[in-house]
Amino acid sequence: MDEDPEMTDGLSIGLFAGLRRSELCALDWAEIKRDRRLIEVKASKAKTRQRRLITISDNLDKWLARNPQKSGPVLYRLVKGKRLPLSVDVFGERLRELVSARPETDDNKARPALVDPWPHNAIRHSFGSYHYGYYRNENLTAAEMGNSPNVVIKCYRELVEPQLAEKYWYVVPVNGAAKIVMPNKK
């Protein structure tokens, strides 16, 4: 995440709240209610055209606390000092750049591709798999994702073992930085 810090908040919301790419790109900080531990996906921004409220998990709250904003796009590009929302296509391109192989340069070590090719909505699908794996409740996972329980059972059940799913919800930033780490569970 150090390579594209403007993406950190959106990626953490995608990973730990399960928003679709289009919902992430349309999300405004005013729709994130940290004091109530909720993210509002407005009907006009949801694929299903139905409003939903998503719970902010403990680890997501730590990610959001790094850079709290009152309003403006969560995913953005800076143009002349102004934050402009990212389009879904630009978001996808930046995701591909983050996970693609990188040749060695004087400033950076080489890095193999993290996932190749990067699947569409992979972040959302990770959320669904880990959420269901942890809570073992298709109704709860469906409500968070804006899906039906049947879709959750068909797409996300039995993909992640409960022990691994539990670790997922402990991924937090280190000392306010944008690096992903797995802390020792207490």
Q: What's the gist of this structure?
A:
Helices cover 39% and strands 12% of the residues. By secondary structure, it is an alpha+beta fold.
What is this structure's SSE topology?
Blueprint: H1 8-17, H2 21-26, E1 32-33, E2 38-41, E3 52-55, H3 58-65, E4 76-79, E5 82-85, H4 88-99, H5 122-135, H6 138-145, H7 149-156, H8 162-168, E6 172-173, E7 180-181
Antiparallel strand pairs: 1-2, 2-3, 4-5, 6-7
Polypeptide structure, described:
By secondary structure, this protein is an alpha+beta fold. It has a single domain (5-102, 117-181), classed as hpI Integrase, Chain A (Orthogonal Bundle). 39% of the residues lie in helices and 12% in strands. It has eight helices and seven strands, in the order H-H-E-E-E-H-E-E-H-H-H-H-H-E-E. Strands 1-2-3 form a three-stranded antiparallel beta sheet. A hairpin with a 6-residue loop joins strand 6 and strand 7 (180-181). Helix 5 (122-135) packs antiparallel against helix 6 (138-145). The longest helix has 14 residues, at 122-135. The protein is globular and about 50 Å long. The protein starts with 7 loop residues before the first helix and ends in a 5-residue tail after the last strand.
Main attributes of the structure:
186 residues, alpha+beta, hpI Integrase, Chain A, 3-stranded antiparallel sheet, 8 helices, globular, disordered C terminus
**CATH architecture classification:** Orthogonal Bundle
The biggest beta sheet reads: 3 strands, antiparallel
Low-confidence segments, ≥5 residues, pLDDT <50?
A: 180-186
Element string (H = helix, E = strand): HHEEEHEEHHHHHEE
Mean pLDDT: 88
Please state roughly what percent of the residues sit in beta strands, choosing from under 5%, 5-15%, 15-25%, 25-35%, 35-45% or over 45%. 5-15%
In the CATH hierarchy, the third-tier topology is known as hpI Integrase, Chain A
Alpha-beta content class:
alpha+beta
